[in-house]
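JOB MANIFEST
job_type = single_chain_structure
chain_count = 1
residues = 247
[input]
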Amino acid sequence: MNSILRQSKHQLDTVFQRDPAARSRLEVLLTYAGVHALAGHRISHWLWEHRLKLLARINAQLVRFFTGIEIHPGAKIGKRFFIDHGMGVVIGETAEIGDDVTIYHGVTLGGVSLEKGKRHPTIGNEVVIGAGAKVLGAITVGNNSRIGANAVVIKSVPANSVVIGVPGQVVVRSHPLAAGVDLEHDRLPDTLGDAVISLLNRLDTVEKILHVHPGEVPATNKDEELNEPTLIHSPDHGLWHGEDFQI
C-alpha cells in the first residue's frame, strides 16, 4: 500500500507536467477523473495480484461508475501514466503499459481473441495515444511513438513512429524525437494523400517527356531542365518512412 501512495504522489507531479490547465494539487485531487481512475486501479490491481479477484472486479466497477474509465484489474501499468479527460477509456485485462505514457478520452486497448492468454496490446515507454484511437490485439507499440486521434492500430508499431488512419498507417520518424513526451497532435502525415500527389507529379513529368496531350501540355525541350517530382516511396513491409513526409 505504501507503494500505491508513492505512485499517487508521482501522479500529481505528472499531471502538472502534461496538462497546462492544472492549477493546484487540490484541484487535481478533486476533479481529475484520470487521477481517480488510476488510484482506484492501483488498489484493484493489488487485490487481483493477491488473488482477491472478485473484490478487485467490484472495486474496478465502482471506479468505472464514478469516472467513466474502465481499467481491468489485471492490466499492468507503469510509472507516470496520465489519462487526460478520460471518458470512455477502456484498458483490457492483459494490456501492459510502460512508463510516461499519455492517453486521451475514447481510447481502447482491446483484445481480438477468445484465447485466455495474452490478447491485449503492450505499450512502450513515452507513447502518446490520441483521442478515440483503438489499439487492438496482442501487438506492441514501440517506445516514443504517437498514435493519431481515431487511428485503428491492428499491427505492431516500431519505436519512434507515428500512426494515422484506418487501418493505421505506420510512418517511421525521419529524425529522433526531442526529449520529452510528444504531444504535437497536429503533426500527422497524410500518407495516402501525399502518395497520390507524388504519383500525379511523376505522371505529369512523364507526359511532358512523351509529349502526351500536345494541345494541353507544352512540349519539353531537351535543354529544358525538368523540375524533380516529389518522390514518395512505397511502404517497406507495411512501414512508411518519415523522410517522405517531413516528420
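[summary]
Residues 217-225 have pLDDT under 50 and may be disordered.
Residues 93 and 174 are 34 Å apart (CA to CA).
exit_status = 0
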